[in-house]
Amino acid sequence: MKLSLPVNGPLDPAATLARYHVFGEDPANRVGNDAFRRVLRVDGRLWPYEVRWQQGVDDQRLDVHVPETRSSVVEAAVSREVAKIFGLAFDLPGFYRFAKSDPVLAELVGPLYGLRPTLAPTALEMLVGSISAQQVNLAFAFACRARLVKRYGTPARIAGDTVYAFPDASALAHVRLAEFRAMKFSTRKGEYIREVARAVFDGTLDLDRLADAPNVAVIEAITGLRGLGRWTAEWYLARCLGRGDVCPAGDLGVRRAVERYYARDRELSEEQVRRRARPWGSYRNLAVHYLLAGLRLKLPANGAAWTAS
User: Fold this and answer.
1) Cα(210)–Cα(218) distance, rounded to whole angstroms?
2) Among 277, 247, 243, 244, residue whose Cα is nearest residue 262
3) Model pLDDT for residues 33-90, shown as the tens digit of each residue
4) Which of 84, 100, 64, 75 has its CA nearest to residue 16?
5) What does the alpha-carbon distance between residue 145 and residue 150 come to, in Å, rounded to a whole number?
6) In order of start, what are the domains of the chain with their CATH numbers?
7) How many angstroms separate the CA atoms of 59 and 50, rounded?
8) CA distance 102 to 98
9) Which of 12, 116, 151, 174 sits in a 20 to 30 Å window from 35, CA-based?
10) How far is CA 116 from the centre of its chain?
11) Global pTM exceeds 0.85
12) Rounded distance, CA 200 to CA 40, Å?
């Protein structure tokens, strides 16, 4: 099966997908040679697929190939997942128009043109990734996560590449803590991952319901799980559900980015960062993404400042 997905506005696939390899290997999301490869799970069956793209950022089209199927159910599921991974639902043209009113964001648009937040393909994947990244550097977190995927995921071949289906909840719900420690997770993180997987597996955590729930209800549900706080809940809203009005101000990287670009590196509190983000309205998620990308690439601030009083 082959299908093409149109893109509303600019898209730079290489920049958008960089998070899948810049911090280390991601066996579940393979990027290389102008292609993205992943395995989709539909009703217990695995479907590897490949996405390729055109060269122009402004006239982009995503071409998807799913071998050995003509199923409309699979086609719809792949289309939804690809749209999430490439951030197609974000209103980038609207954000760029809005950014003209903010000197800092306006300066970042040019060098980051076409960059979109990539959303986690599945909720479980997002939560496991968030737990992995707690209080460690991202390279170490990615290495631990890669070991988990290779040990409990299922390998599949597509276009000469091996990609792993991310482990399902039933697999992770039964992992022994000693096995988590062997993969370099702390005992606590092993407990948290296993408990989240069990909550998903037994239906205690209804991920389908959360997808349509208000932000407050999502935060309440996520923080009700042991080991998951507001930091994880807000990143879940931003990077799994794609909510536009979210600023994970408790994240150290977000605070550092806002301090760098709006406070001349003066330390700001979490509440001060939230106040700075309020004028961004429904573009808070995109603004945070661009500030973090600018910080990683060491893009200079233009001297504009904001006083946090």
Assistant:
1) 6
2) 277
3) 889 999 999 988 999 999 999 878 998 999 999 998 888 999 999 999 999 999 999 9
4) 84
5) 9
6) 2-89 (3.30.310.20), 90-304 (1.10.340.30)
7) 20
8) 8
9) 151
10) 10
11) yes
12) 18
Whole-number Å distance between alpha carbons of 90 and 45? 30
Tell me, what amino acid is at 292? L
Rounded CA separation 12/296 (Å): 17
Q: Give me 92's structure tokens.
A: 């980038």
Q: Which two tokens stand for residue 237?
A: 């809203």
Q: Which two tokens stand for residue 301?
A: 């601030």
- List the one residue out of 130, 122, 166, 124 whose CA is nearest residue 148: 166
